[in-house]
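2024-03-11 09:14:02 DEBUG pipeline.ingest accepted 1 chain
2024-03-11 09:14:02 DEBUG pipeline.ingest length=386
2024-03-11 09:14:03 DEBUG pipeline.predict start
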Amino acid sequence: MPLHYFDNNATTQPAPEVVEAMQPSYATRWGNPSSLHQFGREVATDLDAARQAVATLIGAPRASSVIFTSSGTEADNLALFGLCAAQPTKRHLVTSTVEHAAVRNYCALLEEQGYTITRLPVAADGTLDPQQVADVCTPETACVSLMWANNETGVLFPIEQIAAICEERGVPFHCDAVQAIGKVSIDLCRHPIAALSLSGHKFHAPKGVGALYLRPGTPFRPMFRGGGQEQGRRAGTENVAQIVGLGVAATLARTHLSTVDTAVRALRDRMEHALLTRIPDMAINGHRTLRVANTTSVRMEGVDGEGMILALSEGGIAASTGSACAAGSIEPSHVLRAMGFSNAEIRGTLRLSISRYTTNSDIDALLEQLPAIVATRRRLAPPRRS
């Protein structure tokens, strides 16, 4: 049975070029990049090339501003720890009600340690008014941490405006850009973002590698203590093979940005239009246009999202109800709840996320199966109580 994959916000297929590029790091270029001998220095050049590729993708002014990590979660935690620890007298942090668990749960930890956390609300369409940031920043604010694109709905925050507001008030701004990389153009030479997190497996690199951009001059204290890797900002021997893959994926992502904005968006729009036409009582969660090009979150009255996932899986279609990091949780999506949806509406939600590897045949398979699954499950559902 062929696989039709609609869960790219959870993880993406590693690009063939990425898999190929990683092989020498396991077979012939396996030295320690911190070693002084020639063999080690050759491996260090692989790290340098990957660092430059990531810097180029995000428009970083210096490649040395890129710190390699094990994941987007580590990058988020490292940013929040480093920015707050470097300003110990400031005990206030600003975030939103729809952040990824990596930021959301770290903020909860800071709250336990005595920090005051301001969680900005979002509108019913998932958007955020940047004026809210201006209204809550104070001289005691150590950091503002907001995502570029939401992992469940794809809704975009006005990052450029938020960055300018933070710069004006002298507050470091951390941006979780995990779901934005490879989908929107990012130029850190133009936007005063102090720290930016990314994760390789969201843009066709392997799992287990990410990066944190740290703007030159930003106050920062490292979380880990050990060797002097990553210029003393993240101790631990670098995972060279994964980092090489990240670098190749970054180069490919930059090359394919226009493809994502046109071809991927066209596939997504075709899918949405057809589903809205064929499935009664269905609606899009989130702003209709202020979204990344690959993401659709839909709610369908009278059905259960998890049941639909299982039914689709039997037909070779992989989709999700929301964040993979929350899979198995009995709690309704905090993102959709923050947007004002009821538990019943949240339970009937399906997330469909595509990539540059998605084809018209994949869309056709979904359009053939999902309307029939919804109709069947509605017909078999117990009658509602009046």
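2024-03-11 09:14:41 DEBUG pipeline.report The first helix runs from residue 16 to 27.
2024-03-11 09:14:41 DEBUG pipeline.predict end
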